[in-house]
Specification:
7-stranded mixed beta sheet, 11 strands
């Protein structure tokens, strides 16, 4: 299984950024999502999507939007009104089936919100 993120970078406060993730090598994907980890902190859930149902962390509600393309096995995270406290490494996650059900993670993409 390969999980590849893209789209991170440096953005000014109030700006927007879209993260993308593609999963390959699985036969079926249940849940896809995004987590983030700031330096010295634990990895926190940002948003997940299962079928058409989405879940957001409180800090993401109203600012972030998760979307999924089942045909392409991709998941995007549109982030608006970014704040310095959104600075973190963002990880793509998938709950999927290969020859067994397993969790798969990407290597992460850095998002830095700074002026």
């Amino acid at each position: 299984v390969l999980v590849e993120e893209s789209g991170g970078g440096l953005v000014q406060p109030g700006g927007s950024l879209t993260l993308s993730c593609e999963v390959s090598g699985s036969t079926y994907i249940y849940t896809m999502g995004w987590y983030r980890q700031a330096p010295g902190k634990q990895r926190d859930l940002v948003a997940t999507i299962t079928g058409g149902m989405t879940t957001y962390a409180d800090f993401a509600k109203g600012r972030f939007t998760i979307s999924r393309d089942n045909g392409k096995n991709t998941v995007d995270l549109q982030m608006n009104s970014l704040k310095p406290e959104d600075t973190a490494v963002y990880y793509c996650y998938a709950d999927l089936i290969t020859y067994r059900r397993e969790d798969a993670w990407g290597r992460g993409t850095q998002v830095t919100v700074s002026s």
